[in-house]
Design a protein that fits this description.
Layout lengths: L1 E3 L2 E3 L6 E6 L1 H4 L14 H13 L4 E4 L7 H14 L4 E5 L2 H4 L6 H16 L4 E5 L14 H18 L2 E3 L22 H14 L19 H25 L11 E6 L5 H8 L5
Parallel strand pairs: 3-4, 3-5, 5-6, 6-7
Antiparallel strand pairs: 1-2, 4-8
Length: 280
């Protein structure tokens, strides 16, 4: 057991960490050319740190970008349960919040049912709130949905005894450098911060450098305008086109780590892939 901010969280001994969800958990925004999907992400970083300080941890990541809650239930729930995890992370529903016509109350009822299925495993369960990403004033209509989502996640976590990773309260995420060019996914720096916060909430040691950093330099008006036009051209318009065609970036994509791997205590997942070490 570990006490964080007055709350006592159950933390497993050396075991198996299974992560499910969407792009947030897949690691989008944190590129790494040697790892699956050319990504790393906060969950990989957490797995590396768990194994570094407590050798023997195993890790699987079933998350796939763009997936809605029902798709996560259909594609990831049973495989996750079959892996008999001792630690599970779940972030799901964020893509649903961005869909026109989403009924948040109905969404959270289905989310709560998913949480109950995961909680029945007896594993330590981590749930995440979502940060209000400062994307564009036009999209602030979605903030109300996100606030309702976060309130329900907090309630569900409290009632189920889950570990709450309350990312919505992290003031560091106001820094633009925490975000990838698409302004919806975290950058490498954002993923490092998240990994550090997760480990600290679990009461686990880590060696991740997650700030403090020098203050962000104020952008010029010309820089803001140039970045805004680039964002519209390279991210917003393609996103709208995919929605019109009813396709997503996750269509046909497989999970990064579908089968549990034994994470090396020295060098972590990167060493395992680079040197071709046995994965079990």
């Amino acid at each position: 057991m570990s006490a964080i901010g007055g709350t006592v969280w159950p933390t497993p001994e050396v075991g198996r960490f299974v992560a499910i969800g969407d792009s947030f958990t897949e690691g989008v925004g944190d590129p790494h050319r040697h790892l699956p999907h050319n990504l790393r992400g906060w969950a990989d970083r957490v797995a590396d740190q768990l194994a570094k300080f407590e050798p023997g941890w195993e890790y699987a990541n079933l998350a796939v970008r763009s997936k809605r809650l029902d798709q996560i239930v259909a594609d990831q729930l049973e495989p996750a349960l079959a892996l008999r995890p001792s630690l599970i992370s779940l972030y799901a529903g964020g893509n649903d919040l961005l869909d026109v016509g989403t009924d948040v109350s109905d969404l959270m009822q289905r989310y709560e049912h998913l949480v109950d299925r995961l909680a029945c495993t007896g594993a330590t369960l981590m749930l995440f709130t979502g940060y209000d990403v400062p994307v564009h004033p036009v999209l602030r209509v979605f903030e109300r949905r996100n606030h309702q989502y976060n309130a329900e996640v907090r309630r569900i976590a409290a009632e189920r005894g889950a570990v709450l990773i309350d990312a919505a309260t992290w003031t560091h995420l106001a820094d633009r450098r925490m975000w990838a060019p698409d302004r919806l996914h975290m950058s490498k720096r954002g993923h490092k911060l998240t990994a550090a916060k997760v480990l600290e909430t679990l009461g686990r040691p880590h060696s991740i450098s997650a700030g403090p950093w020098d203050p962000e330099p104020a952008p010029t008006f010309a820089q803001i305008r140039r970045e805004h036009h680039t964002w519209l051209r390279e991210w917003v318009l393609p996103l709208v086109g995919r929605k019109i065609r009813r396709v997503t970036l996750g269509d046909g994509r497989e999970p990064r780590w579908p089968d549990p791997v034994r994470v090396p205590s020295k060098g972590g997942l990167r060493r395992m892939v680079r040197e071709g070490l046995p994965q079990r």
